[in-house]
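debug: dumping io for the single-chain case to check the tokenizer round-trip. Nothing else runs in this session.
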Amino acid sequence: MTDVDEVDGVLAALAEPVRRRVLDLVAARGEATATVLAGDLPVSRQAVVKHLAVLEAAGLVVARRAGREVLFSVRPERLAATARWLAARAAAWDARLAAIRRLAESAPPPSP
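debug: decoded output
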């Protein structure tokens, strides 16, 4: 899987608002089960499990079994990689806008 494929997966997973909220809750708690997370969300436990599966497939969370429970925690490295990709895109646009500004400011004023 290439870096671009990984970023695509992360962005697709984060496109859903409830999924972003699930990720925020897992991050805030450190670890959480789907049942605990469902208690803080307006969706069923089954819906939370599905959202967690998408987040796990994107590499944003990892599951570990503790007895009968499955605990989920955030994998920050995937978020960091996506943040770096976004920062690079922002820097490229900033450079383009700066070039346009320089051109606009160096252009002679229009004649009357």
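debug: round-trip ok. Residues 76-106 form the longest helix (31 residues).
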